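A further point concerns the way the authors explain their paired sequence and structure data. Showing the layout once, in full, would remove most of the difficulty. For illustration, here is how one protein appears when written out as sequence plus structure tokens:
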Amino acid sequence: MKTDKGTQKTAKGSYLNLKSWDFTQVEANDDVLPGEMTAAYVKVPTPVAAVAGPLIGMVFLIFLPFMGIVGFLGFIAFRIYAGFRALGRTMAQGVVYRRQPGRAPPRGSRPRCPVEASAPPRRG
């Protein structure tokens, strides 16, 4: 399959941009294709373009609502998952003690330093 590049002179006819899937109509012979040099075009026979264009539009029109519904359900599922995850973290914080340097330990806790715990009592 022969591909033509953007800014290249081509014969008249219908061309399909392979990157953006746009149909481009070239009206005269030796006319220039739009786009940059990196854009690739394929010449499409006119009857195929006349049938494929509306068919692609119809498929898009039919499946667009389904894509919206799936996206919305995915968003709702993500928010429910994030809510349960945050709820789990909140509940676990009451059970797990996290040591924070510079703050007083909770009441009734023992000193953590083994030297202070094993030091002999002072006389005096």
